[in-house]
Amino acid sequence: MTSSLAALVGAGASLGLAYVLPGVVERVRSTPDTAALAVLALPLGIIIAASIFVYRHTARLRPLQAALAAMLSVALTLGLIIAGTFLLPALTPRPQPHANRNSD
Asked: CB of 80 within 8 A of CB of 8?
């Protein structure tokens, strides 16, 4: 349950930021910069927090359960991000206003 929640929150936040911030999707696809890496690092932070939660709230085999939760969260997050990129509508660039120039 923790892995599923971490994947939903991480992928949702990452996709939400990618679609809200202008130009981030193109930056991630071409040359990554700090804004693009921040969007991709957000799910990683959430996965780490979920793994720490699992580690602290289990009675036995703590390292194993935390590692399994992290691996499951990573797999689910990647799947949701890939599905989101195909299912969410592509952003169309906004038309820029042009100055009227007279050729007289």
From this structure: yes
pTM for this prediction:
0.71
Q: Counting every residue, how long is the chain?
A: 104
CA distances from 15 to 22, 64, 71 (A): 12, 29, 20
Give the tens place of pLDDT for each residue, 6-59.
Answer: 998 988 888 887 777 766 666 666 666 676 677 778 889 999 999 999 988 887
Whole-angstrom distance, CA of residue 18 vs CA of residue 23? 8
Distance CA 55, CA 99 (A): 60
**Under 8 Å between Cβ of 18 and 85:** no
- In this predicted structure, what is the pLDDT of residue 73? 92
Using alpha carbons only, give the angle 6, 75, 50 rounded to the nearest 5 degrees. Answer: 25
Measure CA 39 to chain center: 6
The tokens for 10 are 């991480």
Residue type at 61?
L
